[in-house]
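subagent[fold] <- orchestrator: predict structure for attached chain, return tokens only, no commentary.
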Amino acid sequence: MQVFPLFNPRRVLFDEVSPADTVPYLSLAGGRGEMVTGVVAIRLESAARGALGILADISGMSAFDSVRISFAAPVPVRYPTPDAVGADGTVDPTQRELDYPCCLPDPLLPLAFAEHLSANATYSLWVNARISRDCRAGDYSGSLNIQVGKSRHTITIALRVWDFDLPQEPTLSSVNWLYANQLARHHGLRHLSEAWWSAVEDVARNMGEHLHDGVYTPALTPPASPGQLEQTQLVRISADADGRFRFDFRQLDRWVDLFRRHGVTKLHLSHMASPWGALQSNGIWIDGEYYPPEPVDSHRYQDLVRQWLPALQSWVDNRKLGGRIYQYVSDEPTMSSFDHYSRLLEWMRTLAPRLIWADTISDLPFARLLDVPIPRIDVLVRAKMEVGNGPLWTFYSYQPVGAFTNRFIDTPLPVLRMGYWQCFTHHITGLLHWGYNYWHDPYSGARSDPFSQTHTGNFPAGDGFIVYPRTEGQYLPDDPLIHDSVRHEMMRIGLQDHALLTLLASQAGTSPAVDLLLERLSGQLAGSLRLYERDGAELERFRRQVGDTLGGVASGAAG
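subagent[fold] -> orchestrator:
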């Protein structure tokens, strides 16, 4: 067995015989409260059966509150992301990593899953450790022991703790579209049962650990894929004989309190109408009966909205949630529905004026209508011209591709990380990811296994999900229902980078060193949406320069 500590967190490919960026020891650095991440590659010379046993001995390093070691497991990628293929038919090496079909490491699983390892293959372990907020700055050292069968290897861990606290509140808002119905479907859970709530808490914990401060919330029934008509909404609606509706917010209250406990304090409420222009309502459950979509100008829909939105506004006011509730109308409305959408949004806003009205948009004229427009990252420059100095988010989905940042399975991790740096340099206030756990076929609604089917319909691999479900019969009793991915870890790293860069910007003008770093950041590193630094080691070196400049400490062991 050969062991290779890497300088920066990245995806390790199975055919890497000797990783080029190997360093003598695992080097980590961070501020107080930061989750630092290290990657160690393991090359096996012979096949190994049985569990990959890991011992983490971090002697004398009281700096860590917690340590978690995960195994990066392979998943299949059948074909490259569209438009990543050049005119000569080859995959662009700056964007994609292998010939296709291929297997890439993505899910991060407990070490007990690392069985039946192949000979002449390279695997990777991800080490996550949180620096305590009460530790003192300094240099710490310890060791990591790795054992495969009878083979055992020990590497040194060196940690530098900078003399500042990373902000506890995220400096960039981030939301994933949680599909609560698919969480229930995939694991066989009854909506609103205690087992379902336990699964939702696993999600809340996972989101909080990854610094996402918002969650897509099914207050009413979200737009549904074919075959997905089960009860999903949190607010129970009943109707009187005279047409008055009553709204029971108790389950939504529980949802709010649960996510708030894990630091997820903003709700992005499910869409009020159908995608691409709000021409139809979504299905709705009233008195336990499902009412299918109907035109938004129907009497029942108009009457329901007229009563629902003031009731929602009162609930928001009573819970003192002002500034934390985002209400969507229609996902990516099209220009053919612009006038209709404009009138509908204006009517809804008069009924609930203190909600934050937001939508993902592909056509930029919609930006002028919304409190928070959310265009794709490839059109940010033009979107900023539309909104001026107003708030502006951005989002990822199956677009953009090519030179732009995204978070597909075959997106190099430094490119994914760069998206957060670009949000900083372009003054973007929030980032939305459509697919947290879309584990079903979007056309049939059938359940799919993301461990073997990473393409969601015809969408690129990993586009529909950033976490993996617990697989029936292949888990330990205490495992959560959610397994992470290397992409999700890189998203957390990117959010921590954004916080660090925000600290750097707060010191602008205080020293030439700070100003030079800011100039380089807004120039060659992350100033362009298409031309940016793709070398993960270079990004990590810059990050450490920032940390040392803001809170560097003298060399010497710390206890």
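orchestrator: received. Logging for downstream: Residues 85-89, 554-559 have pLDDT under 50 and may be disordered. The CA atoms of residues 28 and 37 lie 7 Å apart.
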